[in-house]
Design goal:
- The complex is a heterodimer of chains A (314) and B (317).
- Chain A is mainly α and 314 residues long.
- Helix content of chain A is 73%, strand content 0%.
- Chain A contains 13 helices and no strands.
- In chain A, α5 (87-123) runs antiparallel to α10 (200-237), α6 crosses α8 and α7 packs across α8 (158-184).
- The radius of gyration of chain A is 23 Å and the shape is elongated.
- Chain B is mainly α and 317 residues long.
- Chain B is 80% helix and 0% strand.
- In chain B, α7 packs across α10 (227-265).
- Classes of the chains: A mainly alpha (314), B mainly alpha (317).
- The interface between A and B is large, with 43 and 45 residues.
């Protein structure tokens, strides 16, 4: 090792310790203004979903036969549907269901896949071989089609839709995190752990897992967008969360039941899907760009616990 | 090469066997009585036990599960693929009748995606951070986020609203009436193609940017080759392989997406048949169609791998 690199390694942790988390975030914001804006939009949508009962102007399920199929006006900003329900309120409540399903599915599916991937990458051997075949089989299905079949089999309902989407996320988490775990297991500090007699489980949870947090975050953010689209498609095809629960997909399905669909019933739910997916995708892109070690190691250290468990400590 | 081909084929068959097992487990072992769907809730409640036994036996659902599974594999091998619960025809007839429309859509979408995506990617890479690059990147980010079925709905609605136009709703095959057939498939193909094109332009941009930095490209520049020749003849062939891969992966997205997009455009293709079968709980149709979609996806990815060996002389198996 040359003297030059040695100095860098010695200096780096000191420089990191000086930086507060606020400064790291500030740096992230300056480098990725677009993804910060996207993150704020995402946050706003999440807040709207959480506080839907206080924000929505009307009851999303209450029909009003005096005002059926009205275009947007001062009373109903997004118009009303075939039975007089307020579209704006339904879009707001739709955010609730759609985001809840997407977050749960990613939390369940991507996390399961990632933990599985850590085990595959670290343990290797026959367990890895068999697991890889299973993931290959799961990846052989087009996402939406697998989700449709599963949600049909276990009955349509909120939990069924969540499980169906989660299963399609598992192999992606598994693949990516496995490759991270594979490279981490060769690191000197992991070997040191093995040499000092730590159990496989201990090494995996304490030494390998923290290194997988950053790629997991990127993966999860990207998968959120995918999960939202799958949920909407399931709802649109009539195999998602059953009506009358408003979800963006269900609203689109409702809209096309009439012979000549009203434009406001199609436009607004779709816009909601697009904006939400766009926000999460841009946020994911920004995090990935930042986590690329050539661009900025700062955020990587931030999310993995500043300065701790550095892979190249010599 | 032949050995590689054989190994790849066996691998793919193994994957498909696994796929068929998962489909079978998901559709047969999990709860839910198919007779509820066939007879309706009331009919199901009024059914005598003897009737139930007879109907289940008729449908081939009363055998032990492993036997049913082997029967299914037999049906696949014979090419008949079993019968729909509700309609007299076999699933093979269904696929032959509806499949061509969906295949046309997928193929056209693939063509559209390359026609749009590749030039956009090249234009972006030639002047990175120029205005054309900015436009191409924004457009591709937006098209990746827009759900195809919603875009489809908007197009259908706009055509209906401004021109009073609606595409034919019954199946018109290309050999019967090419013009009407085109009207049926062009909408879904463009919507699906643009979404894929967005990924293709992103991928070809980043691959080209990487290749353009290489020494041999600089040499070509130093020798005074014109920019067009450098990009198209020297850089592009080396940048194209990952783009082909992603195009294969995207097919899974198209196959899945086409189900929803067909619904949006009201195209009576295979995707519509699958949705109908799922809503009717027509298990035999569902299991075969899902397997078909997975098989196509696996096959395309094998072809992509093979095209690597064919296009890149450095790769020899």
């Amino acid at each position: 090792m040359t003297a030059e690199t040695a100095t860098v390694i010695v200096d780096a942790p000191i420089a990191v310790r000086d930086r507060s988390i606020a400064r790291e975030l500030g740096l992230f914001a300056r480098r990725n203004p677009l993804s910060v804006a996207a993150g704020l939009v995402g946050l706003a949508i999440i807040l709207v979903a959480v506080f839907a009962p206080w924000i929505a102007p009307r009851d999303p399920l209450k029909a009003n036969f005096a005002r059926m199929n009205k275009p947007p006006d001062a009373q109903a900003l997004f118009g009303t549907d075939q039975v007089g329900r307020d579209t704006l309120s339904r879009v707001i409540y739709g955010a609730r269901t759609s985001l809840f399903v997407a977050f749960s599915a990613v939390l369940l599916g991507t996390t399961t896949g990632s933990l599985w991937g850590v085990a595959c990458g670290y343990l290797g051997g026959r367990f890895d071989l068999v697991s890889q075949r299973v993931m290959e089989v799961l990846q052989a299905f087009p996402d939406l089609i697998l989700a449709m079949a599963i949600s049909m089999a276990i009955g349509t309902g909120l939990p069924a839709v969540i499980v169906a989407i989660a299963v399609t996320r598992v192999p992606f988490g598994g693949r990516v995190i496995r490759s991270v775990a594979l490279s981490v297991r060769e690191m000197a500090y992991v070997e040191a752990g093995r040499a000092s007699g730590a159990s496989a489980l201990r090494i995996m949870t304490l030494h390998v897992l923290p290194q997988c947090v950053a790629p997991y975050l990127v993966l999860a953010t990207t998968h959120l967008g995918v999960a939202i689209v799958i949920e909407a498609a399931l709802g649109f095809l009539g195999v998602g969360v059953p009506p009358p629960t408003p979800t963006w997909g269900n609203m689109l399905a409702d809209a096309i039941t009439s012979l000549i669909p009203s434009w406001w019933l199609v436009l607004f739910p779709g816009l909601a899907i697009t904006i939400t997916v766009l926000a999460f995708n841009l946020l994911g892109d920004g995090i990935r760009d930042t986590l690329d070690p050539r661009l900025s190691p700062a955020f990587l250290r931030l999310v993995t616990g500043a300065g701790r468990a550095r892979p190249s400590s010599s | 090469m032949r050995k590689y081909l054989a190994r790849r084929a066996i691998f793919a068959l193994g994957t498909l066997l696994g796929v068929s097992m998962i489909i079978f487990v998901v559709l047969r072992v999990l709860p839910g009585d198919p007779l509820v769907a066939i007879l309706g809730v009331e009919g199901h409640a009024r059914m005598q036990p003897a009737d139930r036994v007879r109907i289940m036996a008729d449908l081939g659902l009363s055998d032990p599960l492993p036997v049913q599974y082997v029967h299914w594999l037999g049906d696949i091998a014979s090419g008949q693929l079993g019968k729909s619960f509700f309609r007299g025809d076999t699933v093979r007839d269904l696929i032959l009748h509806r499949g061509p429309l969906s295949a046309e859509i997928a193929l056209l979408a693939l063509i559209v995606s390359w026609l749009v995506g590749l030039p956009a990617g090249i234009a972006s890479a030639v002047r990175p951070n120029g205005w054309l690059d900015a436009v191409a990147r924004v457009v591709s980010i937006v098209f990746i986020a827009v759900p195809g079925f919603w875009l489809g709905l908007l197009i259908v609605l706009a055509l209906l609203f401004w021109f009073g136009y609606k595409a034919p709703i019954i199946i018109v095959h290309v050999w019967e009436n090419p013009w009407q057939n085109l009207q049926q498939v062009i909408g879904p193909a463009i919507v699906l193609g643009l979404a894929q094109g967005a990924y293709i332009s992103r991928m070809s941009r980043s691959c080209l940017l990487e290749v353009i930095r290489e020494d041999y490209v600089r040499t070509a520049r130093a020798k005074g080759a014109n920019e067009k020749a450098i990009v198209l003849r020297h850089a592009l062939p080396n940048a194209i392989l990952p783009v082909i891969t992603i195009s294969g992966v995207l097919l899974g997205f198209v196959l899945g997406g086409s189900v929803a997009v067909e619904q949006a455009f009201g195209v009576p293709g295979l995707g519509r048949a699958l949705v109908t079968a799922i809503i009717e709980r027509d298990i035999i149709v569902v299991q075969n169609l899902v397997l078909l979609y997975a098989a196509i996806f696996v096959l395309v990815n094998v072809l992509v791998d093979l095209s690597y060996a064919w296009l890149d002389p450095r790769i020899r198996y």
